[in-house]
Specification:
Elements lengths: L1 E2 L4 H14 L10 H21 L2 E5 L12 E6 L2 E2 L9 H11 L3 E6 L2 E10 L11 E9 L7 E10 L6 H16 L6
Antiparallel strand pairs: 1-2, 2-3, 3-8, 4-8, 5-6, 6-7, 7-8
């Protein structure tokens, strides 16, 4: 976990140290500083993008799963305010209006709260700053009893490697959906 307001540098340093400690035994010692620098640069780029999207927390897997480094990230964004569609209609009306305008959107429920889930494949586009094609899943969740109405966004991205098996990405999306199904409000 990388907090995006305070403690960001410390969290990135911990992750880089852990990654360097996990380099294979035969990894050339002369290449360790280059690997450390490259990882730090890539993490800073990801952090900048997450902050630019209003992120407050960035989650990156740092452990390999069955020897595979998962090419995913999750960003929890700052709450945003959205006015009601009409004064007498609550957040569900906002979600339904967004669902009608968002390709791949569907209504879900998280901890007894209506939520909007969308999924799409995003192509790489250097002009837009998108270095890699990726599968993106977003949950848009109203904060219960907030006044004015506030919403959280949870974004999941999985890098799509050329000629890769789509079933792998479907499984990663299922994993994220399973994580989101455990979401609970606490006050």
């Amino acid at each position: 976990m990388i907090p995006l307001h305070t403690g960001t540098d410390e969290a990135m340093d911990r992750i880089v140290r852990r990654a360097v400690a996990q380099l294979p035994v035969g990894f050339p010692k002369d290449d360790i500083p280059k690997a450390r620098l490259k990882l730090t640069q890539e993490m800073k780029k990801v952090v900048r993008r997450a902050r630019a999207k209003g992120g407050m927390t960035l989650y990156l897997p740092t452990e390999r799963l069955h020897g595979v480094a998962l090419p995913v990230s999750i960003v929890a964004a700052e709450p945003i305010e959205i006015p009601r569609v009409t004064p007498d209609r609550g957040p569900e009306a906002v979600l339904l209006a967004l669902a009608s305008e968002t390709p791949g959107a569907e209504m879900r429920e998280l901890d007894d709260t209506a939520a909007l889930r969308s999924e799409r494949d995003v192509p790489d586009d250097a002009a837009q700053g998108i270095d890699f094609a990726h599968r993106q899943v977003e949950y848009f969740v109203p904060i219960p009893d907030s006044a004015p109405d506030l919403y959280l966004t949870f974004s999941f991205s999985a890098v799509i490697a050329p000629d890769s098996d789509p079933a792998f990405y479907d499984t990663l999306v299922e994993l994220f959906d399973a994580v989101m199904s455990t979401f609970r409000w606490s006050y």
